[in-house]
Specification:
heterodimer; A: about 100 residues; mainly alpha; 4 helices; B: mainly alpha; 5 helices
Chain lengths: ~100, ~150
């Protein structure tokens, strides 16, 4: 039970890292590529729903897949990297829209 | 705006604010040397549920109403940056919050049976990040609402 829960903590943290970074890339790419934004709208009804659905899908997939693996990596280190990855991801998103507002990109 | 949409918007705001407040409580307890992990994990999981409700209610309001009825008024008003920066950033970084909340809740559940000081500190740091993102999205929501 303890090992199982540790696996879920680890897999969820890694899935969150991947999802946060994927979201940052997808959001910037969709703003820069009208074709991608149109595909998200056409496929998921709205581009925001598309980003949310892809994030949920990736998160769920990685959580389940990685929970089946065993790892000796320290949980505290993974959680720390998760926090850093989320800071980087939100920094990219906020920075992109700030630069867009200032018409620098 | 219909009564149903108003109810969804109010639900989005209240559940989001309560969930952010819960993360504040979780953080305060994680900063103690010997936290009550049973209490922390219970409220951390309730934050997950509240963020998911906030996410779902905001999605319906945003997709069916905001883009056609609110966004054009903001862009035509005195504060177009309220949408161009604050709403665009808020709607996107908000997508990350439920995943963080799940991770925080799982960590606190694990700590109930496996007290680990290093993990407690990392989880506190992660909760601080989630709290800052939550507070930033709430503040952005205030700016967007005030710009209409």
């Amino acid at each position: 039970m303890m090992n199982s829960l540790a696996s879920w903590v680890r897999s969820t943290a890694i899935a969150s890292i991947a999802t946060a970074l994927m979201l940052a890339i997808l959001i910037v790419a969709a703003e820069e590529s009208p074709a991608l934004k149109e595909w998200l709208k056409a496929t998921f009804y709205h581009h925001w729903l598309g980003k949310g659905a892809l994030a949920l899908g990736l998160f769920a997939l990685l959580c389940v897949a990685l929970s089946l693996q065993r790892s000796a990596a320290r949980l505290s280190r993974i959680i720390f990297f998760e926090a850093v990855a989320v800071i980087v991801s939100t920094g990219i998103i906020a920075g992109f829209f700030l630069l867009h507002l200032l018409k620098l990109i | 705006m219909t009564i149903a949409l108003a109810a969804l918007l109010i639900t989005h705001v209240i559940t989001g604010i309560v969930a952010i407040g819960i993360h504040n409580v979780v953080l305060m307890h994680l900063l103690k040397r010997t936290p009550n992990y049973v209490f922390i994990s219970r409220i951390a999981w309730s934050a997950v549920a509240l963020f998911l409700v906030s996410w779902a209610t905001s999605a319906y309001y945003y997709v069916t109403y905001y883009g056609t009825a609110v966004k054009p008024r903001i862009l035509a008003g005195d504060m177009p940056f309220a949408h161009a920066f604050f709403m665009e950033t808020k709607e996107h970084i908000f997508l990350v919050l439920p995943f963080l909340a799940i991770s925080i809740a799982l960590c606190t559940s694990y700590l109930r049976t496996n007290p680990d000081d290093a993990l407690r500190k990392s989880t506190a740091f992660l909760t601080l990040v989630a709290l800052c993102i939550g507070a930033a999205t709430a503040a952005a929501g205030v700016i967007v609402s005030g710009s209409v």
